[in-house]
Design a protein that fits this description.
Layout lengths: L6 H24 L4 H21 L2 H18 L7 H22 L9 H11 L6 H10 L12 H12 L3 E9 L6 H15 E7 L2 H5 L6 E8 L3 H9 L4 E8 L2 H9 L6 H6 L4 H8 L11 H28 L2 H25 E3 L1 H4 L2 H11 L4 E6 L4 E3 H22 L3 H6 L6 E10 L2 E8 L6 H10 L5 H5 L3 H6 L20 H12 L3 E7 L3 E9 L4 E9 L2 E6 L3 E8 L4 E3 L2 E6 L2 E7 H4 L11 E9 L2 E7 L1 E9 L13 E6 L5 E5 L1 H5 L1
Parallel strand pairs: 6-8, 13-22, 17-19
Antiparallel strand pairs: 1-3, 1-4, 2-3, 5-7, 8-9, 9-11, 10-11, 12-13, 12-20, 14-18, 15-16, 16-17, 18-19, 21-22
Helix pairs in contact: 1-2, 1-4, 2-3, 3-4, 3-5, 4-5, 4-6, 7-11, 14-15, 17-18, 18-23
Length: 669
């Protein structure tokens, strides 16, 4: 019997059962006496075992069978739920995920699961399995053939992007002399030198451990730099009591190739990878009832065809207005109404709940909290909120990094929280909700907050701002500095997360999706990172304007107001044209000058402006005239023209002309 015809269904359903295992195990950890949860876990494991045996994947079936025995023992109250059991069972689920991923990638589904089976059998017999063995084995599986360091997916992205910008990545192991008395002081001096040479993105042991002298005589750092290795070595060797320096250059391509040879059961790596397009859609159209599974490529084709229909609809509307034919106008109006309904249906078909990304974060948070010896709870609100699947595919990594930042830098250790009069258990709230044509995602913690003065001091030292500029900056403007490329503080160097090199990548990813990220924080109270994203990226509502004989489109999501003002109301401040807009000074930008449009100066005493906004900053765009609001299809200019200032794309209008779409954020920058 040819089982290949059932392979796709097997993979989809296996992933659904694994998701149930992950979610219900987390629930069981909070409610260990709830046998109803155990029944849910048992059913998922039992079904997965049967499917695996039928398909001939013996390693998958054997591991699931032993795990099923543990669950049955808990259900029959022969086995008491303990922390050891959760660690080992979670490790077994990680192994199951790796096997299923291997099968999905065309592999044979074979894997050495003897270690997990042995631990589960020990637990079934009532024997103890040390927590450390389970955790350390998980950590060992993600080593990437480097002497000291393991790199997660986000750190590899940083290394890869740094290489693209001409930087080198060096992994340096620095050894102190055995008779060194002030090890912490020497480490501090080494970091001072390294920060002058580049950006430290990782330290093993962590900075906190180095400060407390929780290391022998050597430590490893990963440095992004443009300086030659020999120059860096000579500077470090000038520090007294340094015995030796070993360094290797890290190649991101080699790292990726080597990693592909290594199996990756660690849950965190899986957590950070959002579900693929097809997985997301199939979870939404799960077989059963009156739903069907649809390949996402078919939805893409349908969307492209509809985009062409929107362009033709615009053309018909224009023809109808030009010839003033009553029956044609009536038909076009009906077509517009029907195509609008069709557009809503197609867009809804592409919408995926953010739960497809959110549902794996609790597992990651649990693991990181244990690694950092912190107590915290993750609250997820609005997981049913829907986003275009194109946005869903890209938003996973930024949220992962923001969560890791909140856990590592935001939430304090239990003893510090207790000393500050806070509950020992910290709280991180992950919230999603709709507002207008946008989706907002907020990551809020009740931790230490951001130290404004420390950020300013570092920004001034790095030359990002001057001391004079810092005096007049709002808190939000100061906090935005931590997302500047290459910005970090000493406290941010960590093997869990890092502000600076990491957060500027987060910001760039969100902006590439047409979104905005902002930061609010109060020292000692907590921080909130807010992400604003468009519902969809392909069809947007825009205001069409004219500058001379050229037409441009401005997304309505960026517009606050349009107005016609007297030229005499335009003022000059610091050699910049400004207006008084409702009591606030708003700078003006002439699109004629920016886009170098040839047109004669008008004698009209009035001028048309469009007030646009990004976060809490505004600008006024001077235009020639307004055409009106219209739904447009956003088309990319392609790689050849991807660096055009203040232009995010183009659209085809009803008369066949191409109108460029203005990126308002560029003016506000």
């Amino acid at each position: 019997m040819d089982m290949n015809q059932y392979l796709e269904i097997f993979i989809d359903e296996s992933k659904e059962h694994l998701q149930v295992l992950n979610e219900q195990l987390l629930h069981l950890e909070k409610n260990p006496t709830d046998l109803g949860i155990v029944d849910e876990i048992f059913r998922a494991a039992h079904t997965l075992k049967g499917m695996s045996a039928t398909m001939g994947y013996t390693d998958l079936a054997n591991l699931t069978h032993v795990m099923e025995n543990i669950l049955d023992g808990i259900r029959q109250q022969r086995i008491t739920v303990t922390a050891d059991i959760f660690d080992v069972v979670f490790q077994a689920v990680d192994d199951l995920e790796v096997i299923v991923d291997s099968i999905a990638s065309g592999g044979d589904g074979q894997r050495d699961v003897s270690s997990s089976i042995a631990k589960l059998e020990q637990l079934e017999k009532g024997e103890n399995v040390p927590v450390e063995s389970a955790v350390s084995e998980l950590a060992a599986t993600i080593e990437i053939d480097h002497p000291q360091t393991k790199y997660d997916e986000y750190e590899r992205t940083i290394i890869e992007q740094s290489e693209e910008q001409g930087f080198s990545c060096l992994e340096m192991t620095i050894s102190l002399r055995p008779d060194c008395l002030l090890k912490t002081a020497r480490v501090y001096m080494v970091f001072e030198v390294l920060e002058q040479c580049g950006e430290v993105i990782k330290s093993v042991p962590t900075v906190d451990q180095l400060e407390e002298e929780q290391f022998d005589s050597s430590f490893t750092v990963t440095l992004i730099t443009k300086e030659p290795l020999e120059d860096i070595k000579s500077k470090i060797m000038k520090i007294s009591e340094i015995e030796s320096i070993e360094a290797i250059a890290i190649d991101s391509n080699k790292m990726i190739n080597e990693e592909q040879k290594v199996t990756e059961p660690i849950s965190e790596e899986k957590i950070k990878k959002p579900l693929t397009n097809e997985e997301s859609e199939k979870q939404q159209t799960r077989a059963g009832g009156k739903t069907i599974r649809v390949n996402i490529e078919r939805l893409d084709i349908l969307m492209n065809l509809f985009e062409e229909l929107v362009i033709d609809r615009g053309r018909l509307e224009q023809i109808s207005q030009e010839i003033q034919h009553a029956e044609l106008a009536e038909t076009v109006e009906r077509m517009t109404r029907i195509s609008g309904d069709l557009q809503n249906i197609i867009l809804n078909m592409r919408m995926v709940p953010v739960d497809t990304v959110f549902n794996r974060f609790p597992r990651m948070v649990r693991q990181l909290a244990r690694d950092l010896n912190k107590q915290l709870e993750l609250e997820i609100i609005g997981a049913e909120t829907e986003l275009d699947r194109t946005v869903i595919d890209e938003i996973g990594d930024p949220i992962v990094h923001l969560l890791r930042n909140a856990i590592d830098h935001g939430i304090e250790s239990p003893d510090v929280r207790k000393a500050n009069g806070k509950p020992e258990k910290g709280t991180i709230q992950l919230k999603a909700y709709h507002s207008g044509n946008h989706v907002f995602i907020e990551i809020e913690d009740d931790g230490a907050g951001i130290n404004r003065q420390k950020v300013i001091d570092k920004a001034v030292a790095n030359g990002v701002i001057t001391a004079g500029e810092a005096v007049h900056m709002t808190d939000r403007e100061v906090f935005d500095l931590i997302m500047t490329s290459g910005f970090s503080t000493a406290q941010s160097i960590s093997d869990v997360s890092g502000r600076g090199v990491g957060l500027d990548v987060v910001k760039a990813t969100i902006q590439s999706l047409g979104g905005i990220i902002s930061i609010d924080s109060e020292e000692g109270i907590g921080s909130k990172f807010s992400i604003q994203l468009p519902l969809t990226l392909s069809i947007i509502s825009a205001m069409l304007i004219e500058v001379g004989i050229e037409k441009y489109a401005i997304p309505l999501s960026s517009i606050i107001e349009t107005a016609i003002i007297r030229k005499s109301d335009i003022l000059i401040a610091h050699n910049q044209q400004v207006i008084d807009y409702r009591g606030k000074v708003v700078p003006l930008v002439s699109l004629k000058e920016i886009f170098e449009v040839d047109m004669e100066e008008s004698e009209d005493p009035f001028v048309s402006i469009v007030i646009v906004k990004k976060a809490d900053q505004m600008a006024g765009l001077i235009v020639d005239s307004f055409i009106g609001q219209q739904e447009i299809v956003l088309k990319s200019l392609g790689n050849y023209l991807n660096e055009v200032f203040a232009i995010s794309g183009a659209t085809i209008l009803g008369d066949g002309q191409v109108a460029l779409i203005i990126d308002c954020n560029a003016f506000i920058k």
